[in-house]
Amino acid sequence: MRSQFFNNLEQGQQLPGHFALQNSKMLRVHLNGDVLARQGSMVAFQGQMEFDYEGAGGIGKFMKKALTGEGVPLMRVKGQGLLFAANDADDIHLFYLENEGLTVNGKNILAYDSHLQSDIQRVQGAGIAAGGLFNTTLTGTGWVALTTHGTPVMLDCGRAPTFADGQSAVAWSTSLQVGVNRTMKAGALIGRGSGEAMQLAYQGQGFVLIQASEGPTVAPHTH
Prior knowledge:
223 residues; Double-stranded beta-helix; 12-stranded antiparallel β-sheet; 1 helix
């Protein structure tokens, strides 16, 4: 799997293929066919393009989305030209899959090649112990663009046992074994809670992408 952090790229630098970073917060797609993108993520385009709602892809996927709340509302973009996409000025990270799989938190998906296969699956090893954690799995060969809240870090799980907060873990290799690690100390303040805290534990050859927060917080009401 090839990936590249945006802060190692010069602005507007083209990567192999048709996904590139216009800057750290904007994706540029050289479109000649179609691509799947988050609904509402288009900020500009040059050329001729059509934007269509993309359904769940069958009753099975529709039911998984409805029951799990996982996934992302998608649109199919068809045409030729340059597509520019972004989401809430979040940072963007690119992956190129080469006949392999990536497990992703659906809310972090910005766009991906339309020929990649997608499914909603329970996170291996987390199950009920993690409150029924489900993620989106993308497999095949092609580009994936993810958003992160803050600049991420990519950890090589082959170097050492790796643990991450479930809300901070954005994506990881499907080759990894995933389990649950708990801290039972009464004063633990790991994650957005206290007392018993839970983290996802990763083992094997692969990586996990961690964002710099547990996600944006919701501002309190003033009325």
